[in-house]
Amino acid sequence: MKAILYVCHGTRVKEGEEQAKQFIERCKEEIDVSIQEVSFLELSSPTIEQGFRTCVEKGATEIVVIPILLLTAGHAKEDIPQELQQVQNKFPHINVKYGRPFGVHQKIIQLLLQRISETKKEIQSDARLLLVGRGSTDPDTKRDFSLIVEALKKESSFKDIDVCFLAATDPTFEEGLIKAKQSQNSQVFVVPYLLFTGVLMKGMQKTLKNYSDEQQEFILSNYLGYHPLLEEVLHERVYEQIVSDGRS
User: Fold this and answer.
1) Is 172 within 8 Å of 164 (Cβ atoms)?
2) Peptide bond before 46: cis, by omega within 30 degrees of 0?
3) Which end of the chain is less enclosed by CB atoms within 10 A, N or C?
4) d(CA 166, CA 184)
């Protein structure tokens, strides 16, 4: 019997954990698989092992594991597979298939533009966009953001688009803001490429208060969040694994 195990990142912020669980519950309703469980890589529960065991206890013989992550970086390529290997060693009779994170996707580009639109600010001709990622030492992160920038330039009126990161890699958020400040663009739209709420957003809000003035407005959009567009992307990631062996 087939099961799906969703692996979210996890957070110390209870609101972020609940948002993830609610997102998975909504997605489960549209997927015709009887066993579907949620788990977390760190900081929240149930853990990957607990979620895996629950699937097995419910009768699963094959488990499709879907990482609820925005990009393909260290968590997706190393941390989750390592956890799964340890668990699978305890259940060698279970067939495990590992799916893809959301990745660079046109629907996420649409969501970014929607978040900018939701600020209710008219975009000036010289407006600059600063895209803020969580950050990773994995080189694929910068590659993916380059693809996102290319897509945004095609889909929007922004001529100047920069990327910065909150941790682990350069340029830092502070460096991105300083560059934007020096650019003298009349508007700087700061767009967090983050999946859930947490201390990072609160820190960004506090930092930006020191940057806006009469000549230059810094505008913080909402983070991506567990939006219906992401539900559609998740459905794609699930079904590409379910049908990959020729069975529905």
Assistant:
1) yes
2) yes
3) C
4) 23
Q: For residues 160 and 109, what is the distance between their CA atoms, to the nearest angstrom? A: 16
- Residue ranges per domain, the chain? 2-103+227-242, 106-220
Count other C-beta atoms under 10 Å from residue 35's C-beta. Answer: 18
Cβ proximity of 109 and 77 under 8 Å:
no
Report the distance separating Cα 132 and Cα 55, nearest Å: 36
Contact in structure between 50 and 87 (CB atoms under 8 Å): no
* C-beta of residue 92 within 8 angstroms of C-beta of residue 194: no
Query: Using the 8-state DSSP alphabet, how is residue 171 labeled?
Result: S
pLDDT tens-digit map of 22-57: 999 999 998 999 999 999 998 888 999 999 999 999
Q: Say if pTM beats, i.e. exceeds, 0.85.
A: yes
At the second CATH level, the architecture of 2-103+227-242 is 3-Layer(aba) Sandwich (3.40)
